[in-house]
Structure formats: C-alpha cells, structure tokens
Amino acid sequence: MLRIDGDEVLVDLGSADGVHPGDEVRLYRRISVEHPVTHRVIEDRFPLGDEQLEQVAERMAIIVVDTPLDHPPTVGDTVVLLRSTPALETPAPPDSCPVCPSCPVQPVCEMDPQARALLDAFGRTLGQPIEQRIGVWEAYLAANPATPWSSVVSADVESLRAMLRTLRGGAPALTPGTRPRAGHDPPLEACTGDAVELVVAIDAPDMIRLVQMHVRHEDERGYREFDLTRDGDFYFRGTIPAEFVREDGFQYFLVAVTTAGAEVPLGGTPERPIAVPVEERFEAPPVRSDRSNLHTSFEYVDFYVNSFARDYYLKFEADFRYVVGSWFYALRMGFGIFDGSGGPVETTDWTGNDESLPDPEPISYRYGFTELEFRFHELFYLIGRISFGSASAYELGGRAPEALVGGGGRIRIGRPNGTNLELGGGYTEALGYEANVSVNLGLVEDVPLRAHIIVTDMPLNDDLGVRLVAEAGWRPTPWFEFAGLAGYDIRDINHTGLSLGLGLTFLW
Predict the structure, then answer these.
(1) Which of 102, 119, 168, 368 is least buried, going by the fewest C-beta atoms within 10 A?
(2) What is residue 169's DSSP assignment?
(3) How many CA atoms lie within 13 Å of 261's alpha carbon, on the beta-carbon side?
C-alpha cells in the first residue's frame, strides 16, 4: 500500500500487472519479530480483509474500504490478487465452448493454463523479498519454458538481480566456511558528557544473529556489553552511554555472533581495544542581552531655597556604556552641561535687605567624559573617570580659563546589576570637589532603588555642603528604565535647599 486517504487505499497494482476494476484482492499485514531466546527472526502475515479494486490505472489502483476493518490498513501493508474478472489476453476459446446467446446452456470458459500459471507465479511474488521473488520467477521459467511471456519475465529477473547487487554494494556471494566482512570507522574523539554512536556495516547480514559492543573506562578491567540494533539491510548501530565519555577516555571492541554460534571480531579485541580520547566540552558563553545601554539624566540642585538661583547648579549628562565582560569590564563615554552660580555662604546667604552683597558668580561648563571599569573579582570593581571641557561666563581672580580638566574614581562592592555599595570622589578644575557614598538595592524586581550621600563644594569650589538623595526607578520592559530622584541639600543650618532629577535608560 502506497498511500491512504480516508477510505481510499492506493496500491501498486495496475493494468500493466494484468488487473482490472472489480478484481478481488486480500489485504495482509506482514509481521517480523525476533525470538527473545533464540534471536531467530520470525516473519508471518495476517489477513485484514477482502476488497475490490475500484479504479485501475496503468501502474496503480484504488481500493475503497466501504466497511471498517477490525485492523485498519496502514502504508506498507501488502495486497494479494484473489480473482480477476477479465482474463489476460489468451488464445481464442475452443470450438466446443459455445458463445451463441441462443444456446440453452452456456458453460464457463476456462482461463488459458499459461496465463493461469503466470498469475499464480505473480501472486506468490507479492510482498516477498527480492531473493524470493527471483526464485519464484526462475521456478516459473523452468516449469514453463514455452510461455509466451518468457522474454518479459527474464528481463524482470535480470532487473531484480541488478537491484539486489545495488543494495548489496556489489558484494560477492559468500561461499560456505567464509566469514562476513565488516566495515567500521572508530570515532577520532569525543566530548565529555556526549553519547557516542557506533556504526558497523556487514556484507552478509543474514549470517549475523547478534552484534555487540563491549565498553569500559581506561582504568577498569571489565567490560560492559551493549547490543547493536539492525538499521536497514547492512548496517548495525549502537550508542555508548554518556557515562562512559569522561576526560580519561574510554575503550571498546565489537564482536558479531553468527547464526551458527561463532563469534567474529569486528573491531578491536579484549586485549587490544579501540581507545577513544575525550576532550573537555567547550561551552560558549551565553550571549548577553544587557551589554549596552544609553543613559540620560537631568538634575537641579539648590543649596539655598530662600533665594532662587544664588547657590545652585543644573547638570545634564548623556552617555553610552558597553560591557566587555572580561577584567576590562566596561567602557562609558558621554557629554554633559553644567550651569550654576554660587560663592561663599556669606555672599550667597542673601535675604533681599543687604544691597551691598555682591551678585553670585556664574559658571557655564560644557564637557565630555570617559569612564573605564575594571573587574578584579565578581564582587569588586574599580572605575576611573576623566573629563575635558570649556567654561564660559566664568571669571575668578581676573583669570578666565577656556579649558577645564576633571577626574575621579570610585569602587563598587557587589554585582553591577544587583545590590552593591559604591564609594567614590572626584575633582573638576574651578567647579570643585565631590565625594559620595551610594547604595543600590536590587530588592524589588524591575524597581531599582538607590540612596546617595554626597559631600561637595560645587558649583564654585567654595563652602562644603551635604546632599541626601533618594532615587527610585521603574523598568516596564526589559529594554527601558525610568528613574526619578529627590534630595535635601545643606550648607549650614540656615542655608538649605532641595534637589530634583529625572533619568532615562535604554538597554539592549
């Protein structure tokens, strides 16, 4: 049976085989099993039911199964012709067979004996192995030397023999007393934890009852045996379990047991087994999805809320960070804008009544910066920073510098994407110093929390102040984070203010 579509079964019988619509056929299920004790292969077939050919083409026919069978047919089941309605082309019926419709009695005409013999031989070949089909046709030719289909049958026999030679790879027939020949390519190496498949090709599989592999570790004396399974006409396959594939390697040999009970070595021996080296498996590091991020932040810092814009600064930064992942862990590059005004507390602490106080000194700074991050341990990191920029509207002691340089560093204790502590500081020419302690809390998923204590004399390198800042973020998607911050800023008990800020981060 070639294909089954619903109740229609397509079979490889056609008018070229001498069948016609209405011919009766029997459906068979072929079973092949191995005896569990003798290991002898037992083959038989069981009838599924009788049906008729509904439609017949030259090489195929359709059977319609009207009544469901106890065992539904499947692809690969066989079909045997039981009775053909019209006969093959035969000689004219004998004169004694009346064909006149006016005859009161019309006997049934017998099929030509030569056609009957051909159909009988053909029926015996259906579903049989190639060797048996060749034997059936050779017996038919020997019993019917004068058959008019002699040339056709002989050509079919030669075609079957050529097919058999192709399947066997041209291997010559074995004479009594010879051993089957085998081919096996040992594996050159294996990787730890991987099962290893072995394949053996044998040119006379009918002589083989069993193929086994015997496996051991190099430091073991005994072997464990495993059976190989037949795969196709000439191949046997087996798998060495992963437990044998260790760094110290493994050894094995192959042996076949013939139907006569003799053992035939196929590769290696117990004394000289085949040794296979085992390499440690290389595990490629997983591809990270958080190597890059683009970060922007804006912050307003006011140290004297009673008088707007006398002791304050605005800072905007945008940067790109890439995680390398080795001892040189990450690189960050960006730019910033720093605008502010300030001076000593006694000059900025103005209530509006003292007209003699000077105006605060302004500063406007544009800069670029680079950070290098080094990993000494998975819980310890060192970050260095350097910045270059130019200042305008800045005047100090009659000097108006055009370029300002800054630098700083910090250490991180803890994992970058988890809970950690950062200690750092830095200095920028003319702007001042800044030292900070930061705690990053990874307690709530997708909600990063941060707290900062900052000591600084910015914006103009004058009196020190302390900033207490709290920051909270929200990551609605794996690639976007929004953060906001608020803080309280103190120069002295009467000189205080507030901080506000926003941040956006894109991750990929």
Answers:
(1) 102
(2) T
(3) 1
281 Cα distance to chain centroid: 17
pLDDT tens figures, 14-43: 888 888 888 888 888 888 877 665 667 777
Beta-ladder partners of 83:
24
d(CA 274, CA 220): 14
What residue spans define the domains of the chain? 3-89+110-167, 182-279, 292-351+358-507
- pLDDT, one tens digit per residue, over 485-503 is 999 999 988 889 999 999 9
CA distances to 167, 209, 460, 486, 498 from 299, rounded to whole Å, are 81, 84, 17, 9, 11
Give the largest CA-CA distance in the chain.
151
- Better-predicted residue by pLDDT, 51 or 318: 318
- Residue 226 three-state SS: strand
CATH number for domain 182-279, candidates 2.60.40.10, 3.10.560.10, 3.40.50.740, 3.40.50.720: 2.60.40.10
118 has pLDDT over 80:
yes
Q: Is 439 exposed, middle or buried (0-12, 13-18, 19+ CB in 10 A)?
A: middle
Q: For domain 292-351+358-507, which CATH number applies: 3.40.50.300, 3.30.450.30, 2.40.160.40, 2.120.10.90?
A: 2.40.160.40
Q: Which of 125, 172, 120 is nearest to 144 (CA)?
A: 120
**Residue 398 in this model has a pLDDT that exceeds 60:** no
How far from 316 is each of 9, 237, 366, 479, CA to CA, in Å?
78, 69, 10, 22
Ranked by mean pLDDT, which of 111-115, 218-222, 262-266, 301-305 comes out on top? 301-305
Residue type, 417: N
- Identify which has the larger pLDDT, 304 or 385: 385
Q: Nearest 5 degrees, angle CA 346-CA 347-CA 350?
A: 90
What pTM does this model have? 0.46
User: Which residue intervals of 208-356 are DSSP H helices?
Assistant: 345-348
- C-alpha 28: how far from its chain's center? 42
Q: What topology does CATH give the domain 3-89+110-167?
A: Thrombin, subunit H (2.40.10)
Residue 417 forms beta bridges with which residues? none
Q: What is the mean pLDDT of the chain?
A: 83
Q: Is-contact 132 126, C-beta < 8 A?
A: no
Report the pLDDT value the prediction gives residue 189, as an integer from 0 to 100: 84
Same fold for the domain at 3-89+110-167 and the one at 292-351+358-507? no
User: Residue 165's pLDDT is what?
Assistant: 66
Three-class DSSP category at 109: coil
What does the H/E/C string look like for 52-67? EEEEECCCCEEEECCC
